Amino acid sequence: DIGFLGDKQNYLNWKTNQIGARGQAEQALLGSQKETVTKTIDLQRKSLSALELVAPHAGVFRLKERWDGSIPQIGSQMWAGDDFGALPDLEKQVATFSIPEGNAFGLKEGQAVKVRLAGTGLELPLQVTQVSKSATTKSRDTPVKFAEFEAKISEEQVRQHGLKPGQAISGAVNLIDKKEVITVPNISLVQEGDAYFVFVQEGRIVRRQKIELGVRGPVRSEVKSGLSEGMQLVLIPEKKEGKA
Predict the structure, then answer these.
(1) How far apart are CA 8 and CA 17, in angstroms?
(2) What is the C-alpha separation between 150 and 140, in angstroms, rounded?
(3) pTM score above 0.85
(4) CA distance linking residue 214 with residue 226, whole number of Å
């Protein structure tokens, strides 16, 4: 029957169209899924790359000491942004020293430092290249503050002696080379404008004496003129308060 065959052909055409439309929908779905997976892979690759740290140069990784001398431990908590380590450049090294604040009188850049490498007897002639502007405590058990200073080591010295970061060293620096110097505690100084005064005790009399200062230190200062050996100073003069 021609009519039956025509209906059969129409059905087959409809079925073919349905299969084609379904196939296109499935392909579109697979394409969308592929795009999602590709974006996820790219995102994961970027995240993995962000976790990788590439050293800018060869060196020895060292944990950074805290103010009390301790180093970060595995599992310990740290504040965001805090440095916990460093990768010093082997060709660019500096010698770092700590000195009690009271002994840092006259310490400044350019002074010669004799550095001795522990356990070897090797001595390096260096110069102070940087001095800290403030002093800090090293332990909770003592209020003594320490000032830090650095001495740069030349690349030639590093290569010649095979120096490595973290090696123990000691240093000696001649802070002031003067034979006869009078110094006074800074607590005894009274400043008025650009002038400085101290209070001198002569028997029962206390008088104010103008002085000229030289080298200033964190605890004591040099007196260039105005005082002589044997004078007695009043560290904290009594304040006389009057009532109106």
Answers:
(1) 14
(2) 24
(3) no
(4) 12
Measured CA to CA, the distance from residue 193 to residue 145 in angstroms comes to 29
Measured CA angle at 235 (ends 234, 241), to 5 deg: 75
Of 85-94, 119-128, 187-196, the range with the lowest mean pLDDT is 85-94
Of 132, 70, 126, 125, nearest to 98 (Cα)?
A: 132
Structure tokens at 117: 């490498």
Q: Read off the amino acid at residue 52.
A: E
Say if CB 106 and CB 131 are below 8 A apart: no
Q: Which amino acid is at 140?
A: R
Per-residue pLDDT tens digits for 70-109: 787 888 787 777 778 877 777 778 888 888 887 777 788 8
* Residue environment code for 141-155, b if the CB has 16+ CB neighbours within 10 A, otherwise e: eeeebbbebbbebee
CA dihedral defined by 223, 199, 143, 72, rounded to 10 degrees? -40
Q: Cα–Cα distance between 217 and 106 in angstroms, integer? A: 6
